Every structure is written in structure tokens, then in C-alpha cells.
Amino acid sequence: MLKTGLMMLALTTAPALAQTSPAPRLQAVDAAVTPIMHSGQFPGVVVAVLDQGEPVHVGEHGFASLEHQAPATAQTVFELASLTKHMTALMVLSLADEGRLSLDDPISRYVADTPEAWSEISVNQLLSHMGGLAHRFEAMPNGQFQIAYSTGQMLTSAIETPLESEPGTDWRYSDQGYFLLGLVIEEVTGKPYETALRDRFWAPLGMSQTAILNQSAIVAHRAEGYGVYEGELARNRRVWQFGLTSHFGVTSSLNDLMIWEAELDDPQVLAPVVIEQAAEIQRAFDAGESCERWGYARGWWSHEVDGRQITSHAGYSGTAYMRDMSTGQSVIVLTNREDGEGLISPLAIAWAAGHAAGMDVPEGGLTCWR
User: Fold this and answer.
1) Residues in Cβ contact with 115 at an 8 Å cutoff, skipping those fewer than 6 apart
2) Are domains 4-81+211-240+253-356 and 86-194 of this chain identical in fold?
3) Distance of CA 163 to CAs 57, 85, 166, Å?
4) What fold is seen in the domain 86-194?
5) pLDDT greater than 80 at residue 20
6) 20 to 30 Å CA-CA from 113: which of 29, 53, 147, 343?
7) If 0-12 CB within 10 Å is exposed, 13-18 middle and 19+ buried, where does residue 8 land?
8) Going by CATH, does the domain composed of 4-81+211-240+253-356 fall within 3.30.1330.10?
9) How far apart are CA 78 and CA 57, in angstroms?
10) Strand 293-296 relative to strand 283-285: parallel, antiparallel, unpaired?
11) What residues does each domain of the chain span?
12) CA 112 to CA 131: how far, in whole Å?
């Protein structure tokens, strides 16, 4: 649990979601985050530590735009990248909970003209990356992404991409699978993916800064994206536009994700059973030093540690989310430096921030796989 002194601070400071009041701030968390931010070359970092859906610490560091020296704040809109997947999973699980689909259904029931090789792929296998599908699947002429893809072009490319393994026999992280789940959502709801999630989740919860990536839109407070290339920080030039991005396309702010975390902690829109199902391990891996059991669930990595269940996920754009489902503690990290080989992961910030705030997590993260 969070340390008593930190809890007293949280109780005596108005929640960060109240726009007229200052956010709570813990010096220990700032002291943990700042050196990782600098050594990892993160231009901007915003981080929230929450307990029972209430913010204990909200930190704002660096710049949303280096060019304009615009500070990164809780209002800054970041690309969530693969943090999108847990929202997609929760939407699918909600539809299943209502009896509008079954997790055992073949995806051919919802996606027309699927190849014979996909006939045994179920909705649940897509959720757990057990469908045998490849990760990347978009057509890349001359090894480069096109500037724009329609949903139809993406589906054609997906169909033409060979399976990596027989469905249900092996695990492989797959953007392709979560793209297909977006098509399932659209078929069942009769709505575009973005509209379905907005109507079901974002609008009822008041998440007004959450949407799907649109490169042509004028978005207030949108962060610029950066990467580290040959050791130097530079613009990442990620301007591709995709028709359906249920695998990576949600954009949001820390303010909105704190609302989202409050919902996951005390659900009003979601069914509690759906949140539990999203964290159920579907493909377990060998446990290492920190975990009794760990593996991929549905849109989350899930870890069983000392009788507690901890879920986490990162996004390539520089995002991380960690939840201790047993204690109600969580950390959300949004940055504008994309991930890459040899770079410090934004999850490192999440673990360090949670540890510094008094959460019962290792400062350097779990070592389940060692």
C-alpha cells in the first residue's frame, strides 16, 4: 500500500481532475523520474500515480514541442500506440458480456472473405495473440510505409500476409490480430471503431480529449513526436494515416487517462467482470525471480506477484501503464519519445515512479522472465 504520509498528502490535496485546483506532487517521484527522463532522452514526460482511482502524484516534465518550447502538461495529447489494445480488448469483452458475440466465434463470422488458413482463428485467439498471425502486415513498397492506407487496403494486405504458425499453437505479438478485432467491433456494433468506443466509453466518462489519430486534424495541445537516431534526438516524422487503427491509434491526455483509471478502479460504464477477464492470463510463460506466474492476457501483460495481480503495457510512441489490481494502485506515463532498440523504456519510468510513491513494486520493474 502507499505510505501513510503520502496518503495524507493525497487526502489533503484536491484531485488532479479538478481543473481549478493544483495537482498533488511528490518530490520523491519527481526525483525518481527526472534522471530517467534525461538519460533516456525523453523530451517531455507526464506521469500520474493513483490510488483507488485518485491521483497521489501528477508530474509534468519537459516539452510537448521542442521547436516551440511548449511544456508537456496533463492536458497534452499524446499518441498511445499499443495502449490502444487494452481499450480494444475491453470493447470486445463488453460485447461478449452482452451476448452480442462469443469469444469462441471464428473471426470469419464477422470479417468477410477470410482465407481458409484463418478458418480456425477465434476472437479470443486474436485478443491473446494466439491466432498465428504476423505482427506487421501493412504493404511496404520498397521497404517503406505508404503515406496513407484505407481500411480496405489494410485488410487486403492482412489477407495476403502468411500465417506465422497454426492458430492456437504458439504466441506471437500481433498488430494484425488487433486490427482484425477492430473489424469485429465495427461489424457487431454497426459503427466505425472510433464512434463505437466514444459512444461506449469516452463520452459517458467525459474523456473529451480522447480520439483516434487523425494526421489532418487540428488537435489542441497535441505533442510533437521524437526519436533517438544514432544517439541524437530528432523529429520522428510519423505522419502515416491508417483507415482503422484498433491496434495503435488512440490519442489521449493524462487528464483523460486519469478519468479512465478511475473507471477501471470503480467501474460505472464497464462491467467489473470484463475488467477481470481482460487481466486473465491466456498464454503463460516461465516465471522468473519476481513472479509466481505471468503471461499475456487480453490487451495487457499480466503478472501474479506475492498474491497480487499486476497488469502492464507499453506503447511504441513512448507510453506505459501499470496497474496493481489487488491494491488499486496504478501509474500512467505518457512521453513523446518513441521506443527503440537499446533505449530506456517508458515502463522504466512507471516502475520507478510507483516505487518512489510507496507502491509495493520493484524500482527497476518485475523480472518475471529471468
Assistant:
1) 159
2) yes
3) 45, 21, 7
4) Beta-lactamase (3.40.710)
5) no
6) 147
7) exposed
8) no
9) 19
10) antiparallel
11) 4-81+211-240+253-356, 86-194
12) 17
